[in-house]
Write a structure and sequence with these properties.
Layout lengths: L4 E5 L2 H12 L7 E5 L6 H10 L14 E5 L3 E6 L6 H6 L2 H5 L4 E6 L11 E9 L5 E9 L2
Parallel strand pairs: 2-5, 2-6, 4-5
Antiparallel strand pairs: 1-7, 3-4, 6-7
Helix pairs in contact: 1-2
């Protein structure tokens, strides 16, 4: 998958295929930030991506803030939706998580605390279309 990448998907099956294709290009140390309104499919995308690694117990970390999964590789799954202050992320060791070069980190609602996001990351923006399809825009961010 070459970045930037954009695609409109019309079904859960198409979203699952996109997630399966995407995860094939992810490497340990990658940070993937998913942005989009409620119900656009951020958690669904992550669930389907991690299926490829045999992880079938993915759930939204909305209240836990972070979930950890392992199956030959480590995955961290953050949800910033219920975070009120940046300090909450610092208190749970967020910087340690994102600096773990042996893990892939997914962050939902990353735009809520963009100031803490690493300068090198992959961003997936999901927009709901009027016909209930979703537009996925995937790009790599590299800030100096």
């Amino acid at each position: 998958m070459n970045l930037p990448f954009q695609k409109i998907v019309a079904s859960e099956a198409e979203t699952a295929k996109l997630a399966h294709d995407f995860i094939q290009h992810v490497l340990p140390g990658d940070i993937i930030v998913l942005n989009g309104n409620l119900g656009t499919g951020k958690t669904f995308f992550i669930k389907r991506a991690l299926e490829v690694s045999g992880i079938n117990s993915v759930s939204s970390p909305t209240f836990a803030i972070v979930n950890e999964y392992t199956n030959g590789m480590k995955y961290y799954h953050f949800d910033f939706y219920r975070i009120n202050k940046l300090q909450e992320l610092l208190d749970i060791g967020f910087n340690d998580y994102i600096n773990d070069n042996e893990a892939v980190t997914f962050i939902e609602w990353g735009e809520l605390f963009e100031e803490i996001l690493p300068h090198r990351r992959i961003e997936i923006n999901i927009k709901m279309k009027e016909d209930s399809s979703r537009e996925f825009s995937i790009k790599e961010i590299r800030k100096e």
